[in-house]
């Protein structure tokens, strides 16, 4: 049976304008001009024989017909996008993974090769973000975040635990030994902008709340803080899971046996509709094995 379908570009323009409430924002999202969005919407209105938007100077308002049409085509376009994203060239299955940048750089990427070797027909597409699963615009099969937290429509599963401990480069330790916590008064403490209380919390556990270091250096991303520690710029609060390889290879040292500062576990968050997908479950199981081995 033949299908009577309007032009796809016209539907995409309408859906974006309706969802964003603006022709200008729809143009930005789709990478076209505002005039092109307006033309596509008019084409769709002519094709449907119904007005979709009321234009009020610089704002638009959907008609009742438009709201009903959006409710029908919005999920259909989502399914088309989802089905398309699942496959790449040569019909390779695509596994879409989203993880925090520092975790991806220091833990996940160095371990991905064995998974790829075991699944040659799968292409992992990794993107980084710290946004909550619910606020991600694009669909993902596996989202990695701290937790466990509860997000509507997602199934959470911890796979990697960690603690935090002061770390620094061996060269820095040679110049300025760290025998007790009091020796930190001669050092630069490295801070991450988004984690401002790590040192305060650790010093309180160590019984040295209020200790004043020689200097502080604040960086805007956690992987920069760890890189600064590797480069000998100061002492950082290192998460054990993400610095384990550096400690094992001697690139970093942990000068104190304790205390260890508790940190949130890393968890997988699977969309409920993907929770039974064999490939998604295989990746989650692989993460759990890696986490059990390397936590």
UniProtKB/TrEMBL annotation:
Similarity remark: Belongs to the LysR transcriptional regulatory family.
Record-linked Gene3D superfamilies: Periplasmic binding protein-like II, Winged helix-like DNA-binding domain superfamily/Winged helix DNA-binding domain
HTH lysR-type domain sequence ranges: 6-63
Pfam families, sorted: HTH_1, LysR_substrate
Domain of life: Bacteria
A GO BP entry: DNA-templated transcription
Gene Ontology molecular function: DNA-binding transcription factor activity; sequence-specific DNA binding
Keywords carried by this UniProt record: DNA-binding, Transcription, Transcription regulation
Name recorded for this polypeptide: Transcriptional regulator
